[in-house]
């Protein structure tokens, strides 16, 4: 039997059982949903201009727009209802800064959580070294949580403005022919919003994931152990135990403590309540 392989797979299995590792996987999946739904969006609205003089009417003026929502650069032609003359018009507003900020945060969050997952699985001895990994991880996680909150809020606000600026009823107000009561203007088709609504939902879901993961990264830093020492006895009784693969490589348990001197055949505890069970072995 290949012991090294067995240990490696046991390590991989354990790391993904950690809330930290598991949430990182959700984080990069949710980040993909966030930037794909926003960055990949394109929509169309249609309005009709029915002139008194029927020949110059256009009953289906299509206006296409897409990420990054520089609406002031989106032009369309509408009949002026004076002979065959047409006028060139632009939508209003530039929402690219919020949209691009949101997508940028989502892409970087995706990259970070992907790299972090790889590090947890393949380099967790290095990660633990001098506590530098958990420390950086903690700071980055706090920063990304904040960025997700800010960018999702900014994007949610921008989206509501985009919806208003591309509402066919609002777009009609831009067309000069529609100001004349004798011509009839109408909305033919509204843009579909499901994709962009989804991106906002995933933005806030990502914030919840990252903010929640602050706690699990915090546990990795070991800063909680000073306090946990005093409640260690109590939580040890509540924690469920199971026999683990004997490991010389050390184990990575749910409480975040890392036991580097585990002996063969030693019973290591997998704490459900986050008790510092393995830490007790080192004392
Ligand atoms: C109506 O507007 C569309 C663009 O949205 C254009 O392609 C079409 O040729 C116009 N139709 C007429 C009759 O001018």
UniProtKB/TrEMBL annotation:
Record Pfam families: MARVEL (PF01284)
Xref: InterPro entries: Marvel (IPR008253), Synaptophysin/porin (IPR001285)
Domain MARVEL: 15-222
PROSITE patterns: MARVEL
Alphabetical keyword list: Glycoprotein, Membrane, Transmembrane, Transmembrane helix
Protein name as annotated: Synaptoporin
TM segment ranges: 21-42, 101-123, 135-156, 200-218
Membrane topology according to the record: Multi-pass membrane protein
GO cellular component assignments: synaptic vesicle membrane
Family in the record: Belongs to the synaptophysin/synaptobrevin family.
PANTHER family reported for this sequence: SYNAPTOPHYSIN, SYNAPTOPORIN
Upper taxonomic lineage: Eukaryota, Metazoa, Chordata, Craniata, Vertebrata
Organism of derivation: Hippocampus comes
């Amino acid at each position: 039997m290949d012991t090294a392989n067995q240990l490696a797979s046991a390590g991989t299995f354990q790391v993904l059982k950690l809330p930290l590792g598991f949430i990182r996987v959700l984080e990069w999946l949710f980040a993909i949903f966030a930037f794909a739904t926003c960055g990949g969006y394109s929509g169309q609205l249609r309005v009709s201009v029915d002139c008194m003089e029927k020949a110059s009417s256009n009953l289906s003026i299509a206006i296409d727009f897409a990420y990054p929502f520089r609406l002031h650069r989106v032009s369309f032609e509408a009949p002026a209802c004076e002979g065959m003359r047409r006028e060139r018009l632009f939508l209003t507003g530039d929402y690219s800064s919020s949209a691009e900020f949101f997508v940028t945060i989502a892409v970087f969050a995706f990259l970070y959580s992907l790299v972090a997952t790889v590090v947890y699985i393949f380099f967790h001895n290095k990660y633990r070294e001098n506590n530098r990994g958990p420390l950086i991880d903690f700071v980055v996680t706090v920063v990304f949580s904040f960025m997700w909150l800010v960018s999702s809020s900014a994007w949610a606000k921008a989206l509501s403005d985009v919806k208003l600026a591309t509402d066919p009823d609002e777009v009609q107000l831009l067309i000069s022919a529609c100001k004349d009561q004798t011509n009839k203007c109408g909305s033919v088709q509204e843009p579909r919003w499901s994709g962009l609504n989804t991106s906002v939902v995933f933005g806030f879901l990502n914030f919840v994931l990252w903010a929640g993961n602050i706690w699990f990264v915090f546990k990795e830093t070991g800063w909680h152990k000073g306090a946990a020492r005093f409640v260690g006895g109590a939580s040890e009784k509540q924690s469920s135990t199971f026999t683990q693969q004997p490991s010389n490589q050390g184990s990575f348990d749910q409480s975040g403590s890392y036991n580097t001197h585990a002996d063969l055949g030693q019973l290591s505890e997998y704490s459900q309540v986050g008790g510092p069970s393995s830490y007790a072995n080192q004392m």
